[in-house]
Design brief:
By secondary structure, this protein is mainly α. It has one domain. 63% of the residues lie in helices and 0% in strands. The protein is built from 5 helices and no strands.
Length: 161
């Protein structure tokens, strides 16, 4: 194998392993943070007027059609909270689910932010591909967490009436 091909393969392996460490490392650390760090009313997590209670995601992204196809990474961690389906109807469970959507959104934003590290050892072109991968891998999850949180907020408001 020519030297240049070997260098390219090493970079491919380094990039794959780096993504694996970033995804699992950030998610693993995120599951260990106290739930009090994730306030659904906080700046990053609160609903915006333009989201229209989730209808924006339904109209623009047809989120109901594909959201069930995303993997639930919580299954990989002992402390993970599964968010694939609502498994309870009480206010305590729904509030916990709400907080966990914040945790998950934060984790995905942080993982996406880490995509910039790939510029340190890759060419600009490969760095851009890594950022695009970061977006493709994380933005759908962020959208689903925001959508689910808006829907849960609506359900919880109905329970408190």
């Amino acid at each position: 194998m020519p030297e240049e091909s070997l260098i390219i393969w090493r970079l491919v392996v380094v990039n794959i392993l780096t993504w694996l460490v970033i995804h699992l490392g950030v998610a693993g650390l995120g599951t260990r943070l106290a739930p009090t760090r994730f306030d659904p009313a906080g700046w990053l997590f609160r609903g915006r007027h333009w989201e229209r209670g989730g209808r924006f995601y339904e109209a623009v992204f047809a989120i109901k059609v594909w959201k069930h196809r995303l993997p639930d990474g919580a299954a990989l961690f002992k402390l993970g909270f599964r968010k694939k389906r609502i498994q309870g109807h009480g206010a305590v469970y729904l509030n916990r689910f709400l907080i966990e959507t914040c945790r998950s959104e934060a984790v995905h934003w942080i993982v996406l932010g880490f995509s910039l590290v790939f510029f340190f050892w890759n060419s600009w072109g490969v760095g851009i591909v890594m950022v695009l991968y970061g977006g493709v891998a994380n933005l759908p999850c962020i959208l689903v967490q925001r959508y689910n949180r808006l829907r849960l907020t609506s359900i919880l408001k109905g329970l408190t009436r």
